[in-house]
Design brief:
heterodimer, A: about 280 residues, alpha/beta, Rossmann fold, 2 domains, 4-stranded parallel sheet, 8 strands, disordered N terminus, B: about 500 residues, 6-stranded parallel sheet, 4-stranded mixed sheet, 23 helices, about 50% helix, globular
Chain lengths: ~280, ~500
């Protein structure tokens, strides 16, 4: 049974929580971080995960990747299988025991850790404490690089036009859509990388986890519009900081026999800023 | 509250598709209707254009994001306070309306509401009813009901007039005819009103108004909805842009207002932020052209206004939402329609595909209480949970969280206690439940997960080219040769 009424009786009236204040970030760059790799990235975009590790290491940070990690639990959570989601979430909690930041190269899994775990464990006061502490030190990769590591990238590649697709979770749950832009803007200082807008940029690509297989007609229409907008933008490259969106967008590009492919932001940043690239596009 | 539809050039020849293309007989399942809708190019174009127009209008009204957040938090608190004492406020509303000379009627179901309206109509031997815009009357299917009893109902809101003429239903709660472009309306008017074909929007509106004008004077009864029912003063507040709401509620000798029980607010002061949020969110207007506050029938010394005013307060499943603290937030809604204007699903399939009176995100979370989850089981799944609706909701209803909750109610065993909703477990499937249990086992056992991934990566070449619905629009995803776990272990060692 899930907890439907954290902090109140069943028929109490809920007031919306205060709008979140802008997040404050630690002043000091940590010596160690955890990386939560996410299940989609683990299986389909492992190189992007390695590129995230290289970016963090280049900042002098020691990266820890707990081998016991699996999935954040989101697929079951958004499908309404709350008990299953909670069990899988619980299996992750003890893996990140030290007081190090948890960096996640995905807005949606980071949003799960940061915003939905506290809901999932609202009925277990002891676990909730642990979960809230975890939520407090969970960062999406782009915001961590920019706000905590205070990276300064310099571009070393050929001129290129690039379109950025920001996941809905990064945009609306994590509030990190401007971080990806800011990182690309650093590369643009030498005017080699030009970020171009695409039509209806803030609109969902149609992935939505199980939504894309439960409602293939609607999701298909959404991803066709998204891929068309990306193609029409004039961009030669597409980047996104979420592998769910990339799986969706790239799968559609391939189905349409289009040459364009989305790349994870971590891979693009590393490649353009002179880093050793693990593999590039998957 | 209806503003004229945005002007859109028709791409259809005059003899082309008319409104009848999307005509009523709504058969099939939600998925089939959605399938048809996404393949209807004209429909897609009409909705995309109209939603872009409405989004831009709204955005221009909220240039300051901080002001918007403060105002909608305020709006949320006003609504939450009203709901926290709903029974008390409804009683106060009834007392004060009665004192003002308004007759108050209570209806638990739409059948009861229709019977109440019919009794009033019958008592006055009314033959013609003219209606201002009311989504609750759509909920009741009042037109259909009264016509079955020999009473003519005419919609006077321009959008409603158009859909009634085309024997359709509204496709949007604010803009009922938004699915049609000017050319389609021109064809409809040409066919049904026997006027010259014109795509001039001003001329079309003029034709509609001329047709309606005399009907106001012929009608025995006027019907309207209510935007806010104010308990403190016993007043009904109604916003609109065409003047038809004022005509419908003041010209005929009898006025019947119908509304849901959640529309009550405590006092006039509460209306100020809600009204500002409503009109700016709905049509991108700082205020509507007309704001009507009705506080009783014509008094002895007054020269106009109806002799009788009735209010029908309808429950129709709202009490079920009220009984649960999370679902209760659904009742915060002030019916602005911003959630549908910003919804990527609504934009793709339009309002009719939902097959419900209230389409879009708010429709997905309110309709299960009206019809039961068994009738609406696909609606909560028809969302990518992108969060656009929750981001713009002027009273901060957490629509994505409620959609997720309804999915949970959908897949719980039908006999599991406690029961929160009618139709609980309508998508319950033992097979799917087992699959998720398997998924849980895999993801709670690192060893099993490792074996699974070893198989998935090493046997990636065996990925079948067709993977159910996914490969309708995507190529089959192929697992990488080695997982991140393996690459990270090589690079970082065991952790």
């Amino acid at each position: 049974m899930s907890q439907h009424t954290p902090g109140g009786s069943v028929n109490a009236t809920r007031v919306a929580p205060p709008p979140p204040a802008p997040r404050s970030y630690p002043a000091q760059k940590p010596t160690d971080v955890y990386l939560f790799g996410t299940c989609v990235l683990d299986l389909f975009y492992p190189d992007a995960g390695m590129d995230a590790i290289h970016l963090l290491e280049r900042e002098g940070i020691h990266v820890h990747f707990p081998q016991g990690q699996t999935c954040c639990g989101q697929p079951a959570y958004t499908s309404g299988y709350t008990a299953e989601a909670r069990a899988v979430a619980r299996a992750q909690l003890d893996l990140f025991a030290r007081d190090w930041p948890v960096v996640i190269p995905s807005g949606s899994c980071a949003g799960m850790f940061r915003h939905h775990y506290p809901d999932l464990f609202a009925g277990e006061p002891d676990t909730l404490k642990q979960v809230e502490a975890l939520a407090g030190r969970t960062y999406e990769l782009a915001e961590f690089l920019l706000e905590v590591c205070k990276v300064r990238f310099e571009d070393s590649g050929e001129p290129v036009k690039v379109a950025l697709h920001t996941s809905c979770s990064a945009r609306r749950e994590m509030g990190t859509h401007l971080h990806g832009r800011a990182l690309l803007a650093q590369l643009a200082q030498l005017e080699q990388v030009e970020r171009v807008d695409h039509d209806h940029e803030s609109e969902c690509c149609g992935f939505g986890g199980t939504f894309s297989v439960r409602m293939p007609d609607i999701a298909g229409a959404m991803v066709r519009d998204k891929t068309a907008a990306l193609k029409d933008s004039g961009a030669a490259e597409v980047v996104s900081a979420d592998c769910g969106c990339l799986l969706n967008i790239n799968g559609a590009f391939e189905k349409q026999y289009d040459r364009l492919r989305g790349e994870h932001l971590a891979s693009f940043l590393l490649r353009r800023s002179g880093g050793r690239n693990t593999g590039g596009q998957s | 509250m209806n503003a004229p539809a945005p002007t859109q050039a028709s791409t259809q020849p005059p003899s082309g598709a008319t409104a009848a293309t999307h005509a009523p007989a709504i058969p099939m399942t939600f998925k089939q209707r959605a399938h048809d809708a996404v393949h209807d190019k004209q429909l897609r174009k009409n909705f995309r254009g109209a939603m872009d127009f409405l989004m831009a209008k709204r955005a221009a009204q909220f240039p300051d994001g901080d002001e918007f957040e403060r105002l909608r938090t305020f709006g949320n608190h006003v609504r939450a306070r009203a709901l926290s004492k709903l029974p008390e406020l409804l009683e106060r509303l009834e007392t004060n309306l009665t004192r003002n000379g308004v007759k108050v009627h209570w209806a638990e179901t739409v059948d009861e509401a229709n019977a109440i309206v019919h009794d009033i109509v019958h008592a006055h031997e009314a033959k013609q009813v003219i209606k201002g815009k009311s989504m609750v009357s759509e909920e009741m299917e009042m037109n259909h009901y009264l016509e079955g009893h020999g009473v003519d109902c005419l919609e006077s809101d321009m959008g409603e007039f158009i859909v009634q003429l085309g024997k359709e239903k509204p496709s949007h709660i604010i803009m009922p005819a938004i699915h049609l472009n000017a050319g389609q309306v021109a064809s409809l008017f040409h066919d049904k009103l026997e006027v010259d074909y014109t795509e001039d929007v001003d001329r079309l509106i003029q034709i509609g108004r001329e047709t309606l004008r005399r009907k106001f004077f012929e009608a025995d009864i006027g019907v309207s909805g209510v935007n806010f029912a104010i308990a403190e003063t016993g007043s009904l507040l109604l916003v609109e842009n065409e003047g038809n709401g004022r005509m419908s509620t003041t010209v005929p000798p009898v006025h019947i207002a119908v509304t849901g029980i959640e529309k009550v607010v405590e006092n006039l002061r509460d209306v100020v932020p809600l009204l500002s949020l409503l009109t700016r969110s709905a049509t991108g207007q700082p205020i509507t052209t007309y704001v009507n506050v009705i506080s009783g029938p014509r008094k002895a010394e007054e020269l106009d206004g109806p002799q009788e005013v009735h209010l029908v307060l309808l429950d129709n499943g709202r009490s079920q939402a009220f009984a649960d603290s999370e679902l209760r937030q659904t009742l915060n809604c002030i019916r602005c329609g911003a959630c549908m204007n910003h919804c990527p699903v609504y934009t793709r399939i339009g309002g009719h595909a939902y097959g419900t009176v209230y389409p879009g995100p708010i429709g997905k979370i309110i309709t299960p209480h009206m019809l039961g989850l068994e009738e609406t089981k696909d609606l909560p799944s028809a969302s990518s949970l992108c969060g656009a609706c929750g981001e713009v909701c002027p009273v901060r209803i957490p629509i994505p969280a409620i959609l997720r909750r309804l999915r949970e109610e959908n897949v719980r065993a039908p006999d599991e206690a406690p029961k929160y909703m009618r139709g609980q477990g309508s998508k319950y499937s033992r097979t799917e439940g087992m699959a998720w249990k398997g998924w849980r086992l895999l993801n709670t056992s690192p060893r099993l997960y490792r074996v699974f991934k070893l198989a998935a990566t090493r046997l990636s070449a065996l990925t079948p080219p067709k993977l159910g619905p996914w490969t309708e629009h995507h190529s089959a995803p192929k697992a990488a040769p080695r997982s991140l776990h393996e690459l990270a272990r090589d690079h970082l060692g065991e952790d």
